[in-house]
Amino acid sequence: MGRRTVFRRSMFSGKCVAGTATVLALAGMALGATTRKDLHFKVGKHPMVSINNQYGPITVKAGAPHEVVVTAILHSDKVEVDQSQSGSRVDLASHLLPGSDQNSGIVEYQVQVPADANLTLHSGSGVIHAEKLHGDVSLEGANAGIEVVDCADGHVHARTLNGAISINNVHNGHLEITSMGGDIIMNSVSGPFVQAESNSGKIQYDGDFGAEGEYSFTSHTGNIEAVAPAYASIDVLARSNSGAVQSDFSLEPKHAPFLARSINSFSGTLNKAASSVKLFSFSGKIHLKKRQN
What we know:
Elements: H1 2-31, E1 35-42, E2 48-53, E3 58-62, E4 67-74, E5 79-86, E6 89-96, E7 107-113, E8 118-123, E9 128-131, E10 137-141, E11 146-149, E12 155-160, E13 165-170, E14 174-179, E15 184-189, E16 193-198, E17 203-206, E18 214-219, E19 224-228, E20 234-240, E21 245-247, E22 261-262, E23 265-270, E24 275-281, E25 286-290
Parallel strand pairs: 2-6, 2-8, 3-7, 3-9, 8-10, 9-11, 10-12, 11-13, 12-14, 13-15, 14-16, 15-17, 16-18, 17-19, 18-24, 19-25, 20-24, 21-25
Antiparallel strand pairs: 1-4, 4-7, 5-6, 20-23, 22-23
């Protein structure tokens, strides 16, 4: 009897352990396991790539011509990736399944596209990153940031609610940058048209205002700081309704609809005045700073 009792108890104990392990494994698959999905698309010149992702980051970099390569990391089985291709147009979208949330619905997109690709990217909560591209890019996010690096020759439209927007080393572009509450940071940015608007976030620019362009920075309550070298060629107009306005440059006077210099405004030209610079805020401070070499 003793031997049988011990044997039965051992069998029961083993079943419990095995059952517990199975439950934990299934729970891991449902909640924490990730799945990698690799996709390849053959495309022609100037392809169009669209990605819509509710939860998670999107990173797009220049890759080989005539090919779009996608790696999607799905954080659970509560989300799928829908894909379609029509000629040189590729559409990808995260498809949330019943029971998904901001954790189980995460998809991380890592994408390589031809440098001349045109992009439309949307993420509800993840950072959007575009790098080394020459096509038009339209980027839209909510609370996470947007990053544009080493791009040229295209239109850049970037919009967030509260996420910060960072633009670095972008030249000969047409830029329209908008954020309700996030900061807008631009370093080494130039082009025929550069516009940045923020409601409560700060706007910061560090560049030379090159390319004989139009530069317009507007905020409601956020501060505006523009840093330029002594050789910058600008025609500048700056005004804040209630914030202090300051310039480190000795500007040549010009005709303006308000006083050339006061506590809330200034205007004037520097060197050949090749580019137009307008800095406007309702209540934020404005500072045009001279770069210290």
